TrEMBL record:
Belongs to the Cob(I)alamin adenosyltransferase family. InterPro entries: CblAdoTrfase-like (IPR016030), CblAdoTrfase-like_sf (IPR036451), PduO-typ (IPR029499). Residues 3-167 form the Cobalamin adenosyltransferase-like domain. It comes from the Bacteria. The keyword ATP-binding applies. Keywords: ATP-binding, Cobalamin biosynthesis, Nucleotide-binding, Transferase. This is Corrinoid adenosyltransferase. Pathway: Cofactor biosynthesis; adenosylcobalamin biosynthesis; adenosylcobalamin from cob(II)yrinate a,c-diamide: step 2/7. Pfam families: Cob_adeno_trans.
């Protein structure tokens, strides 16, 4: 099998339902989702042997599959072809985030991205996910695409934030607060009192 086809030598690529320029917003969107997926793979490699349970690795593997689904949905220009990513994945991310928030100390101020290698990589994945989300918003202004994919990316960036804190906490690495941050987050106790 050859990896090269030469069909993109003039600046176009194939998507589900036709061909588009390689700088098309649709290609930018699913290409950025692929970039996120690569950083998730890097985080998984960095987590090997660290104090984060097997569950975290299994979650990240699930997310890698879902990111492939999301990328495929974004590459789908055919209105009669069903999307793969479902809203159950969005709900699952919310459940996992809630778990990690409960497992980590209260957060009052903004924190600096970083910590151990895996947590720092998860922060990179978080910021690239936000970029992917912005590109999907741009795509939705000009063409139809998966609304679930947009919701998924929105939750996923928050998930990466919560997980990065958990990975640091599980490995006894403290968050570093942004020194000029006001108190911007409410404690778990104040949320329960509402």
């Amino acid at each position: 099998m050859r990896l090269y086809t030469k069909t993109g030598d003039k600046g176009q690529t194939s998507i589900i339902g036709g061909r588009v320029d390689k700088d098309d917003v649709r290609v930018e969107a699913y290409g950025t989702v692929d970039e996120v997926n690569s950083f998730v793979g890097k985080a998984r490699a960095e987590l090997a042997g660290k104090a984060a349970d097997k569950q975290v690795d299994e979650e990240l593997e699930r997310i890698q599959h879902e990111l492939f689904d999301c990328g495929g949905d974004l590459a789908n220009k055919q209105s009669n072809r069903p999307f793969k990513l479902e809203d159950t994945s969005v709900k699952w991310l919310e459940e996992r985030m809630d778990f990690y928030v409960e497992e980590t100390p209260d957060l009052k101020r903004f924190i600096l991205p970083g910590g151990n290698d895996a947590a720092a990589t998860l922060h990179i994945a978080r910021t690239i996910t936000r970029r992917a989300e912005r590109l999907v918003v741009s795509l939705m202004k000009v063409e139809d695409t998966s609304a679930v994919c947009l919701q998924y990316l929105n939750r996923l960036s928050d998930y990466f934030f919560a997980l990065s804190r958990y990975v640091n906490y599980a490995n006894s690495v403290a968050d570093v607060e942004y020194v000029r941050s006001e108190e911007v987050f409410r404690s778990k106790q104040s949320k329960q009192e509402e």
